[in-house]
Each structure stands twice: as structure tokens, then as C-alpha cells.
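Quick one:
INPUT:
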């Protein structure tokens, strides 16, 4: 009996060891399986990103062709904002090139150089004019404009209606003003006064270009929905409805010269300052690229910003692996 009990105990021990080893084997195999899956996912995501980067090469070639058609004017046509599809093995690339400068440049409320930004009165007044054209009260428009300038400028001097660090240190969590140019429009959400309602109202008309230059408006590419940008240039002297009519009456093929655009009788009545006159252009300096890739079950999204100077190569100014907000 004693021997039988010992043999039974030994058998139970062996069975327990077998069960433990089986459980360990299953766990190891699961780890291997998930590891292989993660590796495969990383490979397909990486390949999708490489395909997205290839869209930049296509975009550069497309922009070079556009510039070659007429160096003085960016051609009109269906290229602006048009989605293009490029089939690939196990997927597709979707890409869209668009004018990225027919908007109010939020960084134009300051002037200067890196680490030394100060407020620019003309940029501030244009931003106020744009906000008023979007049915924001004059007082609120001035508060928002000065808050934006104080956020970007590098001094610690609080403007009358703006706010420096002291306006944000009481927040939870506390933070400070940036003291540099905005890199994207979504940064407005951190600035006092730019509520979700205000942000949604102004978002289609503003941008954050990588320069503090005054907003360059290509009047041949602007559509009637953004005609308030003309009201902005005219310091709120041009009614938004009249601005829409001017854009809708644009000649087929666009204005051939800037002087032809300004010769419109309605515009001649309210010509802006010489500086604002120079903001109107027929040539686009900044272009955006949005690329979306579906590849083998993985996705990659990329937005790029190109700068095309009057003389020189096309420069990549910014790249993000997200959609522009």
C-alpha cells in the first residue's frame, strides 16, 4: 500500500509538471505569435509611411510643372484641392495638393526675428478686421488679437487687452506663453479667449505659416467662401458681400496682372495701404500636401508644407504624421 501511495504521488507530480510546462509553452507561443504580429504591423506601417513620403516626390514634380507653365502666375485649374489616387500593391495612395497661403497668417501679428518678436500693428489690425467680418464684436476681436500677439512676442510686456505669463499660470495645469511663432493653428486653443466656438468660426480662414510675413493672398485661387480675406485687406471697408461678388466675377483664366485686379471699380474706392496692396499676388508661395495611405491593412497619414520661392528649389517647410486640424 505504501509503495502504491508513493507511485501515485510520483504520478501526480509528473502530471503537475506536465500541466505547468504546457501552460508555459502556451504562454511562450502566445508571446511569439503576438511578437510576430507586432513585427508584421510595424513593417506594414513603416512601408505605408514610405509610400506617403513618395507622395512628396510626386508633389514636388507637380509643383515644378505648375511653376514652369507660368513663373509669374500660379495656374488655375482643378489641381487645387483635388484628390489623386495612386494604386499600389495591397493598397492605394490618396494625395491632395492645395494652395496653403490664401488665409490669414496668424504669425503676421508680430515682426522681427527668431527670439526677438514684437507686435506688428498692421498684422493686428488685419486680424481684427477679419474677426469683425466673421461677426465677432469689435471689442472681442481686439482682445483676441492682442492675446495672440502677447502669446507670440518675446517680451514680457502685457498689452492693454492681452495677457502674458501671468494670465496662464493660474490654469490647471499652469503654463506660459510660447514666445515664438505658432507652428500650427491648433495652438490657438491654448490662448485665452479662443473658445471652441471662436476657433470653429475662424479656422477655415487662418493658417500658421513658418514666417511672420503679412498674409500673401492669391486672388486667382481664392474662392467666394473666403472672400472675407479681401475685406481683411481693405481694413473692413469692403463689405463681405461685395467681396464675394468680386471673386465670383473673376475672369475665366484669372486676372492676368495684379493691377487688373485692383482696377475693379469697387476696389478702387477703398484702396488699402501700399503694404496691403503688395499682399495681393497671382503666385502662390506655400502649398500643402495631404497624403493618406492604405497598405496591407495599415494606414499612414501625412501632411506636408512646401515653400516655393520666386527663384529657387521647392523647399519642404514642415511635415507631420497627422491630419491638419
Amino acid at each position: 500500500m505504501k509503495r502504491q501511495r508513493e507511485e501515485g504521488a510520483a504520478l501526480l507530480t509528473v502530471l503537475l509538471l506536465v500541466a505547468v510546462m504546457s501552460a508555459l509553452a502556451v504562454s511562450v507561443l502566445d508571446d511569439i505569435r503576438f511578437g510576430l504580429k507586432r513585427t508584421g504591423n510595424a513593417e506594414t506601417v513603416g512601408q505605408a509611411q514610405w509610400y506617403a513620403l513618395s507622395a512628396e516626390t510626386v508633389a514636388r514634380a507637380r509643383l515644378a510643372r505648375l511653376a514652369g507653365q507660368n513663373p509669374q502666375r500660379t495656374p488655375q485649374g482643378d489641381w487645387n484641392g483635388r484628390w489623386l489616387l495612386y494604386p499600389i500593391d495591397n493598397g492605394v495612395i490618396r494625395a491632395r495638393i492645395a494652395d496653403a497661403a490664401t488665409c490669414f497668417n496668424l504669425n503676421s501679428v508680430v515682426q522681427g526675428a527668431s527670439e526677438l518678436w514684437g507686435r506688428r500693428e498692421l498684422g493686428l489690425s488685419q486680424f481684427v478686421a477679419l474677426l469683425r467680418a466673421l461677426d465677432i464684436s469689435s471689442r472681442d476681436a481686439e482682445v483676441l488679437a492682442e492675446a495672440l500677439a502677447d502669446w507670440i512676442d518675446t517680451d514680457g510686456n502685457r498689452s492693454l487687452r492681452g495677457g502674458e505669463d501671468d494670465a496662464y499660470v493660474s490654469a490647471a495645469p499652469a503654463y506660459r506663453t510660447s514666445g515664438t511663432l505658432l507652428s500650427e493653428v491648433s495652438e490657438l486653443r491654448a490662448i485665452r479667449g479662443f473658445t471652441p466656438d471662436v476657433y470653429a468660426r475662424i479656422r477655415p480662414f487662418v493658417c500658421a505659416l513658418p514666417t511672420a510675413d503679412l498674409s500673401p493672398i492669391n486672388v486667382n485661387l481664392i474662392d467666394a467662401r473666403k472672400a472675407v480675406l479681401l475685406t481683411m485687406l481693405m481694413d473692413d471697408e469692403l463689405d463681405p458681400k461685395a467681396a464675394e461678388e468680386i471673386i465670383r466675377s473673376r475672369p475665366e483664366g484669372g486676372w492676368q496682372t495684379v493691377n487688373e485686379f485692383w482696377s475693379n471699380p469697387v476696389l478702387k474706392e477703398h484702396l488699402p495701404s501700399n503694404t496691403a496692396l503688395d499682399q495681393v499676388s497671382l503666385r502662390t508661395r506655400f502649398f500643402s500636401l495631404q497624403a493618406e495611405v492604405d497598405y496591407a491593412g495599415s494606414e499612414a497619414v501625412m501632411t506636408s508644407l512646401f515653400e516655393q520661392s520666386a527663384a529657387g528649389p521647392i523647399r519642404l517647410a514642415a511635415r507631420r504624421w497627422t491630419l491638419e486640424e
